[in-house]
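mind reviewing this stuff:

——
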Amino acid sequence: MKNIAFVCIHNSCRSQIAEAFTRIIGLGVCRAYSAGTEKRDNINPAAVKIMKELGIDMEILQKPKLLNTLPPIDILITMGCNVNCPYIPCQHREDWGIEDPSGKSDVEFRKTRDLIKSKVEILVNQLKKE
């Protein structure tokens, strides 16, 4: 199984959503992690609320983490926050270019959530074919 890491600046919104979806959609296919380059104490409350609409409570298993907490990573996904991440060894790296919905409406959070879910589904389906 591949280790996938989703990286953002604060690890409080998009990367947490991606980790949560990948834990569910990628169950038995990959292991999901997320981390950030700057310390945060909590996951963004709006992101928590929007995921709870789908029955996913990110606060049960997840919390903001820094890059140094990641295990060896096979696939590194940056979320589009112009993160200049330190070198993290991996087999594949890509940027999803997703705009941060923080401070925006629930509608924008839902659009971001749904876009991330779609990208996770594509990624996991690709891994199933390998």
In short: The two ends are 11 Å apart (CA to CA). The first helix runs from residue 14 to 25. Strands lie at 2-8, 30-36, 75-78, 92-95.
